[in-house]
Design the sequence.
């Protein structure tokens, strides 16, 4: 059996996976900064963990190996609250996108991050999300060969991919299954019988993520009601993604937007436009928005699960 079918007990229970990508990316500066990593550790993560404790949320945190090595305690601080430690690759440098690295380099990055996170956390690391959601079919093989069992790098039916790095290669999102599925041996974006289970990020035209929630909160409120109806009809779990760097404030420092692409169109969309939009409701203004979203699922009886726990309990 692939996916959720009528009669599956998960049709009766509703699941929400509130996931988090933890890295040194500065939303304010649109670049990677060690200083941002320190603020994420000291300010952003405590805010998230406090919210999750209040509503008894169990969550999955996808760490880059870079921030984990820089601040090992940022990994350990989630373990005691029962959250899952997962891999977000070795770093968030755009040249290390999993859609452009050769197979052996992908394996090296996965193996490195897995072992580092396991040493720090004491947990087995079995879940992965690619930085910027950039993957290819080599990634599928690399994940299986390095011992990963669950992935959450596909955003089914998400239409804003042209504003992110590797956008043209994300066209596969348009036809990828909406419900969790066992991946085909030769295609990341189709159902099959490989050892890897894909638990897609939720999208409804736009992604169901913290950035959208902050930029257009009223649309996200409508979005979650529509997605709630979908869950009631199909049993589809909700997979939301947010970053602890969205709860920190770096606006006291003058803002300079780093140019990451020599292509003028990409620079306009991926650097200038995207970076200007992404700072709306950044910092403390994001807290009530996210708490409202958590409360929506809490009051409707959703079970908050980790990626690993959902995968282990599924019949996919």
Sequence:
């Amino acid at each position: 059996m692939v996916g959720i079918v009528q009669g599956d007990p998960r049709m009766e229970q509703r699941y929400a996976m509130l996931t988090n990508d933890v890295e040194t990316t500065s939303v304010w500066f649109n670049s990677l900064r060690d200083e941002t990593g320190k603020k994420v550790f000291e300010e952003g993560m405590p805010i998230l963990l406090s919210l999750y404790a209040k509503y008894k949320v169990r969550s999955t945190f996808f760490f880059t190996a870079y921030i984990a090595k820089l601040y090992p305690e940022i990994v350990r601080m989630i373990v005691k609250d029962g959250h899952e430690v997962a891999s977000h690759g070795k770093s968030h440098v755009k040249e290390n996108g999993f859609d452009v690295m050769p197979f052996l380099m992908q394996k090296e990055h996965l193996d490195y991050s897995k072992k580092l996170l396991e040493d720090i956390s004491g947990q087995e690391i079995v879940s992965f999300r690619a930085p910027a959601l950039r993957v290819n079919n080599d990634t599928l093989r690399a994940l299986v060969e390095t011992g990963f069992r669950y992935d959450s790098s596909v955003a089914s039916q998400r239409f804003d991919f042209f504003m992110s790095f590797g956008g043209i290669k994300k066209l596969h999102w348009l036809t990828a299954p909406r419900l969790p599925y066992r991946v085909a041996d030769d295609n990341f974006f189709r159902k099959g019988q490989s050892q890897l289970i894909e638990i897609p990020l939720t999208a409804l035209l736009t992604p169901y993520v913290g950035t959208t929630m902050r930029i257009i909160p009223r649309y996200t409120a409508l979005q979650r009601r529509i997605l709630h109806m979908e869950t009631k009809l199909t049993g589809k779990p909700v997979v939301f993604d947010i970053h602890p760097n969205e709860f920190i404030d770096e606006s006291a420092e003058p803002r300079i937007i780093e140019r990451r692409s020599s292509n003028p169109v990409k620079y306009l969309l991926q650097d200038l436009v995207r970076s200007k939009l992404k700072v709306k409701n950044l910092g403390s203004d994001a807290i009530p928005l996210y708490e409202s979203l958590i409360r929506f699922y809490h009051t409707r009886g959703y079970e908050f699960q980790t990626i690993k726990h959902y995968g282990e309990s599924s019949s996919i």
Notes: The chain has one domain: 19-313. The chain is about 40% helix and 15% strand. Residues 65 and 117 are 7 Å apart (CA to CA). The mean pLDDT is 90.
